[in-house]
Amino acid sequence: MKTAIEIKDLSVIFPSRSGPVTALDNLNLEIKQGEVTGFLGPNGAGKTTTMHVLLGFIKATSGYASIFGTDVRKSIARNKIGYLPEHPDAYRFMTGREILKMTGHLFLLKGKKLHTRIGEVLQLTGIEHAANRRIATYSRGMMQRICMAQALINDPDLLILDEPTGGLDPIGRQAVRQIINNLRKQGKTIFFSSHELSEVELVCDQLIILANGKVVAKGNSAQLIKSGENLEQYFMDVITTKDI
Ligand SMILES: Nc1ncnc2c1ncn2[C@@H]1O[C@H](COP(=O)(O)OP(=O)(O)OP(=O)(O)O)[C@@H](O)[C@H]1O
Ligand SMILES: [Mg+2]
Fold it and tell me: Is this prediction's pTM over 0.85?
């Protein structure tokens, strides 16, 4: 299997008034193409920062990161990425369909192809009933869904999803699980952060637990979790007992 994401000795240190904040501390990780990876860790562990480096939003202080073999500092590395931010938002004066059309244009999609793709992503994310309504009238979960649809419009090979189930009702969480499972069947690589440990256990091939900007555990749930325990217990053990 080819490598989808490679991160080597990556550090991110933010300046702040009270002194530098080390968000990532010589981070190393590798994600293979076609894998679904759950990225876990307490608040402030460095999950969003890792994603922001991969997306080219921030520059690492040191180290290296690549996507499908291309250095993330080159914009071409982001060609085949779909991204759902931690706090999804969209132009509220537009309708869901208009947002998707605009996003499609950014990826040079047009005409019948774009029309068909919009229909597909609306259906996949379960928001087609509200596609012609202004985003201003959407609930938080509906906003999450339309932004997920936006992330999928270019049929990306790699999806980076920062807490995709945050703010969703149980039906919405199940829908995200289904979307992830569908994408997995298509051979897509999915890297997503979450605090919903029971959800993560259900969909992931691999779990990576981050604390203080370092990987503290990595593997599939069968490798990590003792029989009779669950991911929440394991997570608490690893976070509270490891020397981090
Ligand atoms: N722009 C910034 N300036 C200063 N410090 C920052 C900045 N962005 C993030 N940090 C710090 O970097 C660390 C990692 O933050 P990050 O947002 O990556 O955590 P996270 O794992 O995504 O947390 P959460 O689960 O709360 O979303 C935190 O200590 C945070 O305060
Ligand atoms: Mg975050």
Answer: yes
Mutate to test the pocket of ligand 1, among 47, 57, 161 (most ligand atoms within 8 A of CB): 47
Q: Which two tokens stand for residue 232?
A: 């929440």
- Give the number of C-alpha atoms closer than 13 A to the C-alpha of residue 104, restricted to the C-beta side: 22
Stretch (H or E) spanning 177: helix 170-185
Could you read off the pLDDT of 44-75 as tens digits, one per residue?
999 999 999 999 999 999 999 999 999 999 88
Residue found under tokens 């259900």: 202
Of 48, 50, 61, best ligand 1 pocket probe by most atoms within 8 Å of the beta carbon: 48
Task: Report the alpha-carbon distance of residue 181 to residue 104 in Å, rounded.
Answer: 23
Euclidean distance between CA atoms 133 and 127, whole angstroms:
10
What lies within 8 Å, CB to CB, of 200 at 6+ separation is 38, 40, 194, 207, 231
Lowest-confidence segment of 178-182, 195-199, 227-231 by average pLDDT: 227-231
